[in-house]
Amino acid sequence: MAVRRSASLRSSPILRRTGIVAGISLLLALLLISYLYGFSNEFFARLFGAFFVLFCLLAVTFLGVVPFVSWAATHWFGPGWEDSALNTTPPRKKASPAVSGKPLRQRVRSNP
Predict the structure, then answer these.
(1) Inside any domain, residue 106
(2) 18 within domain boundaries
(3) Which of 28, 77, 98, 106 has the most CB atoms lying inside 10 A of its own CB?
(4) Does the pTM of the predicted model rise above 0.90?
(5) Is residue 96 situated within a structural domain?
(6) What is the spatial distance between Cα 53 and Cα 18, in angstroms, rounded to a whole number?
(7) What is the DSSP letter of 101?
(8) pLDDT in tens, 66-99
(9) What transmembrane ranges does the database entry give (predicted)?
């Protein structure tokens, strides 16, 4: 029974997404800290801090904000709002009259 539970936890979409966000956060933090400070003093402390900040920012954005905006767009505007917005064509501009080669009024120059 424990095997089924662990298999269902691995296949859970939220855990899979959280793992992907954590992996990307760790990679970005590792690249950032090694580029800025190298592998000198307090490397792991800096890495942990950068990982925590990046993970929080990415998790809130991709696991909270983006799904909420998708849900809100579907529920507040209705399911057909996206199709109607894509099918509208902008109104055509009226054709401007042809411009002749002659000026409408000639300038009069006075000779000094």
Answers:
(1) no
(2) yes
(3) 28
(4) no
(5) no
(6) 15
(7) S
(8) 999 988 888 888 766 666 656 666 667 777 766 6
(9) 20-37, 43-69
